[in-house]
Amino acid sequence: MICGCFRHVSDIRREAPHTGNVPNIYIINDCESVDLQNLLGKQLCVACAGRIKRIEPPICLCCGMMFNSKEGAAHLCGDCIASPKMFRMARAPVAFDQAFTDVIHFFKYKAKVQLAMPLGELMLAAFLRYWRKEHIDLVIPVPLHADRFKKRGFNQALLPVQNWRKSANRLNLECPSIQLERQALVRKRPTVPQTGLGRKQRLVNIKNAFGVREPEKIEGKRILLVDDVYTTGATADECARVLLNHGALYIDVLTLARAI
């Protein structure tokens, strides 16, 4: 049983009103009305459904950080002003607090791969909220090193997005016809897990860890980089730097959750 839960696009009440530019499928509040047991079977604790916090405006225009104050419009945060990012923008549907940490950890470290489909649909909903389909050419998951992949058996950044087409068909959504590119971006050397490292340690740990195997697949492309969690942005920024150096037009970032 996972102590943590989240709103799922297949359980959205179809009569829910459209708000702004947010698709009807992307309403992750009112969690008590969601049949979470139907959503994730026996994998989810229904009692903690209301603890998930979605990312709400105002947010940083670049890194997507949610501001404490709910007053005012979206603007750049102090970190993005002081240290401009290599990517254009990063977005996530929910906050990486304790409630969602449990979900991520069960998926990532306890191989609860049955979570991949609902997590992917959560990411698909966020994609439809923040992007126009025609503005992205490639979806690229942050790669694992071969040793880490062999030990874990799957890439937690890849599994949620590889079935977007199936999810869109099931939800009667127009399917994003975006190519999923699994091989072009590679992790050249093993790194220690970023969890528990400070900002400077993360930057050192991830520096020069990535490379591009097939630059012709990257050149001139508008890329959506996907990962499980955005914490300091060190991994996303390093991947973006490498992709831009190999001719990508721009990099945007989508993660399941955003540290707050």
Give an account of the 3D structure.
The chain is of the alpha/beta class and 260 residues long. It has one domain: Rossmann fold (3-Layer(aba) Sandwich), CATH 3.40.50. It is 27% helix and 13% strand. The chain contains eight helices and eight strands, in the order ααββααβααββαββαβ. The chain has helices at residues 36-40, 78-82, 98-109, 116-130, 146-152, 164-170, 199-206, 234-245, and strands spanning 89-91, 94-95, 138-141, 179-180, 185-187, 210-212, 222-230, 250-258. The strands form two sheets. Strands 1, 2, 3, 4, 7 and 8 form a six-stranded parallel β-sheet that branches. A two-stranded antiparallel ribbon has the order 5-6. Helix 8 links the parallel strand 7 and strand 8 (250-258). The model is unreliable at 1-43 (pLDDT under 50).
Which outline best applies? globular
Low-confidence stretches: 1-43
The beta-strand count equals 8
How far is it from the N-terminal to the C-terminal residue, by CA? 25 Å
Total discrete domains: 1
Structural class: alpha/beta
Largest sheet: 6 strands, parallel
What does the oligomeric state look like here? single chain
Q: Helical amount among residues, as a percent range?
A: 25-40%
Architecture per CATH nomenclature, i.e. the level-2 architecture: 3-Layer(aba) Sandwich
> What is the residue-mean pLDDT, rounded to a whole number?
79
Query: Topology as H/E string?
Result: HHEEHHEHHEEHEEHE
Helix count equals 8
Indicate the proportion of strand residues: 5-15%
Keywords, separated by commas or semicolons:
260 residues; single chain; disordered N terminus; 8 helices; two-stranded antiparallel ribbon; Rossmann fold; alpha/beta
